[in-house]
TrEMBL record, chain A:
GO terms for molecular function: iron ion binding; oxidoreductase activity. Gene3D superfamilies: Aldehyde oxidase/xanthine dehydrogenase, a/b hammerhead, Aldehyde oxidase/xanthine dehydrogenase, molybdopterin binding domain. Coiled coil: none annotated. Residues 36-142 form the Aldehyde oxidase/xanthine dehydrogenase a/b hammerhead domain. Residues 1-29 are annotated as: Disordered. It comes from Actinopolyspora xinjiangensis. It holds the Pfam family MoCoBD_1. NCBIfam families: pucD (TIGR03196). This is Xanthine dehydrogenase, molybdenum binding subunit apoprotein. It comes from the Bacteria.
Automatic annotation (TrEMBL), chain B:
The lineage of its organism: Bacteria, Bacillati, Actinomycetota, Actinomycetes, Actinopolysporales. Residues 1-78 form the 2Fe-2S ferredoxin-type domain. Transmembrane segments: none annotated. GO terms for molecular function: 2 iron, 2 sulfur cluster binding; metal ion binding; oxidoreductase activity. This is Carbon-monoxide dehydrogenase small subunit. It comes from Actinopolyspora xinjiangensis. The keyword Ubl conjugation does not apply. Keywords: 2Fe-2S, Iron, Iron-sulfur, Metal-binding, Oxidoreductase. Pfam families: Fer2 (PF00111), Fer2_2 (PF01799).
Length: 771, 168
């Protein structure tokens, strides 16, 4: 049924090379702890004498705070502290790009769910009840709830003093006014998606004797958290020590601060360890979501199917605080035509403040929304031209040497057409035998027994996407690795220390593999992530294997150089003639010289290196840049769906993917990323939407916000190709995000093929099919 | 209140339990067994799945008092000392663990399935695990892990675990 093609591992140059290096699929080092239930996630932590923290949140999307009375809460038994904005020791503002969000609201609240006050108590229930005793007098205001309106109607209230636009970016290429033989247009909307990581936001803060604080937490980026937290606490960053605990998924939702400053404030005030763990409802209010978007598109082509122009206006609703909105606008506009070669482009993107829930990073950042629109447009265009939709895509596919809408020349492989051809060739599911009674569990509606096959129509659809990898537009994007090689009981042991967050993606395994390949030692330990080593940046933008992988490679090579220099001196051989193999040092002339452990003796070799990827440059006011983004990744999906056309129920029968990963450092993990990413794209296609009405989330629970279960996720054929990027370490290309992007339009295209409906909104619900 | 129960074969006592606490809270916060997870605390995700008198339940939906004098089996009890159970081993080998937050609940649910249905079909696996959410894997490798565990158990009863209490 399902079939997986991962590249076979490359035979190493030497027979006795160390197993488990780059290109193989060793098992993850934290697997045993995780299956035993012994892996300590941030919500599992416990300390002697620990208190529980809780957060009071605004019930209104927009209001002025007239007064806050904490007296009754403070007097309630078991309560040890109640804190408000007045108690924030330092800067009461934080943010990833624009520093615009209060740690605790002062005179206004800008979204329903904004933190207003904190409690520490001896039991979580005591803390929750104390929240009810805090009296906040609000003057309720009219919220701004429509991003498109906010972009053009100056009479709306200003959510922030500087106005409602977070970022406006146009991209112009060629002649934006050009005409074409065939023109199709459409308006598309994408609902607000939630990362829905399973491990709730949580942290344990322990006040230290030096006046600082130790915070154990789950995050995507320790150093950025620390910088913001230290500023809010008015502490030297050195006194804010952060250590990574187990992270129960992230997907972008842990880039912004949640409980970090709050829990530290409570610990410093009470002088006791304090733990905060959000429940699922609070988690929906406590982190940013994927930006909902409204997108107007117009595509023009020749009668032969060559794209002549793409014009689009994209509106992203950033909600109450900026978070990653500037980057979403940057990615959305620069990638807005998709992986196609288009001579004439005019795209405008707006990222707006409103009083809706704040939106920020989620897997596929800013590239997910336009992909749904431009792929829907490609299908429309194919229909208008009476062309095969895959052929139309192949005909216009971008490839190496082509120029993007921002003027960047792709100087690395861009095998878009190849991916489309390959995904089309993957095996299709067998049609049910004629006359055989279908298993109702395989049909739309499943065990609820809504159909036995009558009214069920099958459809097939395709989607392909482009995603930029790493930080862009001039950001200095780097990571740091410290590698220590020493002799432990006669065996060489490498220790890799970075701050790069393992959020489930398997970065720990990748780091081990790189160290094994570079140092030819079997035993590689990964030091816990903390802030005692330099920054790694965020586990986002599909960037860690690229940048932290690059840093580990560089640090290992520095260690190797020193080891070979020591050996060269000791044995009187030129270092250039020496290499490492299977735990030994080998001379080209005289063969094996010594065991690595022997040469190390009681000395350890330690080196720290930073890896910076090629420079990128900002966009100018027309959206031009020599190199706005360092790398692009591509994936193509084919979806097969069955739709019960009478009830509007959808069953995704099969979802296949071809993706270029440059170099599969760990082929099995790559496949796991593609499967997991595709599932999140399926969620956006047919089920996941945070319902927001008048600025308020209506479905903050897993009862009402549905994510795919094992019944919803079909078998997948996964086809991985490796067209190495000569600029990247080992040729790697970011893996995590593309499959989340191209799966959604493929599934919707399949539903269109089955139903003939337009389907301009995701997620697609029954009302769109039978309405 | 005072709560007496057996967890993974050991008699345990928790004092000063507030009657609103769930079995999940008692396991995680009072008995030092945080292996069972708390992804929703509303009975929707299965991350807290434990055996209660050998029947899998969502520990977040069980009031602590309901566990009085009963036998609880958690993920921490699946392995036989150093020896991982067949299901645990298969989850590692098949790459079914990414962040791992769903894993404890899935392991208990899968362990129960293989105990009841030694050679489950794919449809039976999907049905049995439908209450366990995983956000990372897309479930393909979880399917593979359960198939592998069933195969390795050789269709004989049980998967070599002791989490269900006294079945051996
Ligand atoms: S925590 Fe119990 S079902 Fe989710
Ligand atoms: S592995 Fe992360 S939720 Fe399943």
């Amino acid at each position: 049924m399902s079939d997986t093609h991962a590249p076979a591992h490359r035979p190493q140059d030497l027979d006795d090379a160390i197993a488990g290096g780059v290109g193989e699929s060793p098992l993850r080092p934290d697997g045993t702890l995780k299956v035993r239930g012994d892996f300590a996630y941030s919500s599992d932590l416990w300390a002697e004498n620990m208190l529980w923290g809780a957060t009071l949140r605004s019930p209104h999307p927009s209001a002025r705070i007239r007064s806050v009375d904490i007296g009754p809460a403070l007097r309630s038994p078991g309560v040890h502290a109640v804190l408000t904005a007045e108690d924030v020791p330092g800067r009461n503002l934080y943010g990833l790009k624009d520093i615009d969000q209060p740690v605790l609201a002062e005179d206004v609240v800008r979204y329903r769910g904004e933190a207003v006050a904190l409690v520490a108590a001896d039991h979580p229930e005591t803390a929750r009840r104390a929240l009810d005793l805090i009296e906040v007098d609000y003057e309720v205001l009219e919220p701004v709830v429509d991003a498109e309106l906010a972009a053009h109607d100056d009479s709306l209230p200003k959510v922030h003093p500087g106005g409602n636009t977070v970022r406006y970016q146009p991209i112009v290429k060629g002649d934006p006014e050009v005409t074409a033989d065939v023109v199709v247009s459409g308006t598309y909307t994408v609902g607000m998606q939630d990362q829905a990581f399973l491990g709730p936001e949580s942290g344990l803060a322990i006040p230290a004797e030096d006046g600082g604080v130790d915070l154990y937490l789950a995050t995507q980026d320790l150093h950025t958290d620390r910088k913001q937290t230290a500023a809010a606490l008015d502490l030297d960053p050195e006194l804010v020590r952060m250590t990574m605990s187990g992270v129960g998924g992230a997907f972008g939702g842990r880039e912004d601060l949640s409980m970090q400053v709050h829990v530290c404030m409570l610990a410093l005030r009470t002088g006791r360890p304090v733990k905060i763990v959000y429940d699922r409802e609070e988690s929906f209010f406590g982190h940013v979501h994927r930006h909902p978007a409204k997108m107007y598109y117009e595509h023009g082509a020749t009668r032969d199917g060559d794209l002549v122009f793409v014009r689009a206006q994209l509106y992203f609703d950033g909600g109450a605080y900026a978070s990653k909105t500037p980057v979403v606008v940057g990615n959305g506009t620069t990638l807005g035509v998709g992986p196609y070669d288009v001579a004439n482009v005019s795209i405008q993107g707006w990222g707006m403040y409103t009083n809706n829930p704040p939106c920020g990073a989620m897997r596929g950042l800013g590239a997910v929304q336009p992909a749904f629109a431009y792929e829907s447009q490609m299908d429309r265009l194919a229909e208008a031209l009476d062309m095969d939709p895959v052929e139309l895509r192949i005909r216009n596919a971008i490839s190496r040497g082509d120029t993007t809408p921002t003027g960047q020349v792709l100087d690395y492989p861009a095998p878009v057409a190849e991916l489309l051809r390959r995904v089309r060739e993957l095996p299709l599911p067998e049609a049910p035998a004629a006359g055989a009674e279908p298993d109702i569990r395989d049909l739309p509606g499943g065990a609820s027994n809504t159909t036995h096959g009558e009214g069920v129509v099958r459809g097939v659809g395709y989607g392909v996407c482009i995603k930029n990898i790493c930080y862009a537009e001039g950001a200095d994007d780097f990571s740091t690795a410290r590698v220590r090689l020493q002799n432990v009981a006669g065996e060489p042991l490498a220790m890799v220390h970075t701050a790069a967050a393992e959020v489930g993606q398997g970065l720990v395994t990748v780091q081990q593999q790189i160290a094994r390949s570079e140092l030819e030692v079997e035993r590689v330990n990964i030091h816990p992530n903390d802030t005692s080593v330099g920054p790694a940046g965020s586990s986002s933008a599909s960037r860690q294997t690229y940048v932290t992988g690059g840093a580990v490679q560089a640090a290992c090579r520095a260690v190797r150089e020193r080891l070979l220099a020591i050996t060269a001196e000791r044995f009187g051989e030129p270092a250039a003639e020496l290499s490492l193999s299977g735990g030994k040092i080998v001379s080209r002339e005289s063969g094996v010289l010594a065991d690595i452990a022997e040469v190390l003796g009681s000395e350890a070799i330690e080196e720290t290196r930073e890896y910076h990827h090629r420079e990128t440059f900002p966009l100018d006011e027309r959206g031009r840049s020599e190199r706005a983004q360092v790398q692009h990744a591509f994936s193509a999906h084919r979806a097969v769906v069955d739709v019960d056309t009478e009830l509007g129920l959808i069953k995704v029968v099969q979802l296949d993917c071809s993706q270029d990963v440059g170099k599969a450092v760990n082929p099995e993990s790559v496949v796991g990323q593609i499967q997991g990413g595709s599932a999140q794209g399926l969620g956006l296609a047919v089920m996941e939407e945070i319902q927001v009405g008048e600025g308020k989330i209506r479905n903050p629970s897993f009862t009402d916000y549905l994510i795919p279960t094992i019944l919803d996720m079909p078998p997948m054929n996964v086809d991985v190709i490796e067209r190495g990027d000569p600029n990247a370490p080992y040729g790697v290309r970011g893996v995590g995000e593309p499959p989340t992007i191209s799966s959604t339009p493929a599934i919707v295209a399949a539903i269109r093929a089955a139903t003939g409906r337009d389907l301009t909104h995701v997620p697609v619900g029954p009302e769109h099919i039978i309405g | 209140m005072r709560l007496n129960l057996t967890v993974n074969g050991r008699a345990m006592t928790a004092d000063d339990v507030w009657e609103g606490e769930s079995l999940l809270y008692v396991l995680r916060e009072r008995l030092g067994l945080p292996g069972s997870k708390n992804a929703c605390e509303q009975g929707e995700c299965g991350s807290c799945t434990v055996y209660l008198d050998r029947v899998p339940v969502c520990a977040c939906l069980v009031a602590a008092g309901q566990a009085q004098d009963r036998e609880v089996g958690t993920v921490e009890g699946l392995a036989d000392g150093e020896e991982l159970s067949t299901v645990q081993r298969a989850f590692i080998d098949e790459g079914a663990v990414q962040c791992g937050f769903c894993t404890p609940g899935l392991l208990v649910a899968a362990d129960d399935l293989i105990e009841r249905v030694p050679e489950p079909s794919d449809a039976e696996i999907r049905e049995a695990l439908a209450g366990n959410l995983c956000r990372c894997t897309g479930y393909e490798k979880i399917m593979a892990a359960v198939r592998t565990a069933a195969e390795r158990s050789g269709g004989t009863s049980g998967s070599g675990s002791s989490a269900g209490g006294d079945r051996t």
